[in-house]
Amino acid sequence: MSRKLVFHRSFFVFVCFVFLFNIPVSGQEGIPFFTTDFPPEEFAQRRAKVFDSIGNNAIALIQGEPSPKGYTRFRQSNEFYYLCGIEVPHSYLILNGSRRTATLYLPHRNEGRERSEGKVLSAEDAEMVKKLSGVNDVFSTEMLGEHLAGYARSGQISTIFTPFNPAEGTAMSRDLAVRAIAAAAADPWDGSVSREGRFITLLRERFPQFEIKNLSPALDKLRLIKSPREIALITKATRLSGLALMEAMRSTVPGIIEFELDGMAKYIYYRNGAQGDAYYSLIASGTNAWYPHYNAGKRVMKDGDFLLMDYAPDVGYYMSDVTRMIPVNGKFSRWQRELYGFYLDCYKAILKNIKPGLTAQVIKQAAAREMQQVLVRSKFSKPIYERAAREFVGSYQKSAENPQTSLGHWIGMATHDVGGQDGSPLRTGMVFSIEPALRVPEEKIYIRLEDVIVITDKGADILTTFVPMEISQIEKLMTEEGMLQRYPKDKN
Length: 492
Known about the structure:
Layout: H1 3-20, H2 40-54, E1 58-63, H3 78-84, E2 92-96, E3 101-106, H4 111-117, H5 126-133, E4 137-140, H6 143-154, E5 159-162, H7 174-186, H8 195-206, E6 211-214, H9 216-224, H10 228-251, H11 258-271, E7 276-277, E8 282-285, E9 306-310, E10 313-314, E11 323-327, H12 334-353, H13 360-377, H14 383-399, E12 408-410, E13 431-434, E14 437-440, E15 445-448, E16 451-455, E17 460-462, H15 471-477, H16 483-486
Parallel strand pairs: 1-5, 3-4, 5-6
Antiparallel strand pairs: 1-2, 2-3, 7-10, 8-9, 9-11, 12-13, 13-16, 14-15, 16-17
Helix pairs in contact: 10-11, 12-13, 13-14
């Protein structure tokens, strides 16, 4: 018998042995069981701040995401991942303020599923999970109720803090999560409550000994200031967004369909390690741009259209949000040059005045003064364009009168990230975008740019300066051959 045949028979026997006796797979080559983006120490630092927030007589209880529906890769909720980095469906985390310890609750191993999909961390991997994540204890999910009962009997814990706001999952910001809950509640044939609401109800019914309080404000405050590692991930997401926008400038010509730019951008994102979309692509040509969150992507672009593209990826649970506008035929028309040129000068006045230590109100007041100067020196070919320009500047000036005004929205684990707006000065570690919009209602013209800014000790770092916004730069880049031309779509 040949050595090759002996090897094949031996391998066959081994495979049968593993299958019949349910020997768990130890993992797949090159696939880590725990994130490589953050060390356990950074998660521990975040948990320590939660301990400080909830006090000695309370625990924080965080519910992880459930298994996804359909053939969709699992993505942990932002809140759960932020505190422990564990990516396992139906997980729970208790942070004990009295002992300052973290306990994970994981489902038991599903060996049949592991044989099909690969290894998933489970309660049976307790020692491994503790070593990887830095938590103190790991138990199976069904032990959660018993442990909560123990806290209730002890009398030492009086309060459970848990997030009241909806969890942020795949391509999700809180504003849209709240909207989805409201839509379900308004449907007389649905009426379902939020997962968080159901969880809170169960806690109150099963353990009335505890006072249930909202953990969301404390987590929001922590997430507002980003660490260097968080900023590195946001920077990568921003770079990929910018690269896709630049490729759109090369690839866009009359006759392509909006969704073609979506597919092109996805290639750039996934080719470079993104795990998904930060949000659905906003690729709006012609009057579609009038609708700020138009996302159908089905229109054929025409010569003379002005195109808005607003799209970014999810890189390691961190997002970006970048927008550019381009002429579909590669050359700005008279009206595009006129309105976009005016808008761009006003937009740069905002960027110029962003500095650490200043409030949004002070920054907007300074920018508004410069915008007024831009308005005075600008010439418009139509009265409706001049009126739109005046309303744009006037609206910005009016918003600057509000002490709690904002420059845009925060960016982080969600595209519209948490943190609130209270008029406080900008601090190191804050990350946000600006996106003022110029509108001409009579012609359904809508112009918007968006850039990502990181506040540092030394100033404001604009992550998107490499993405062209000047008219001459955009027109020059649009003369280059694009990906869609090199790889045309199937004609069949």
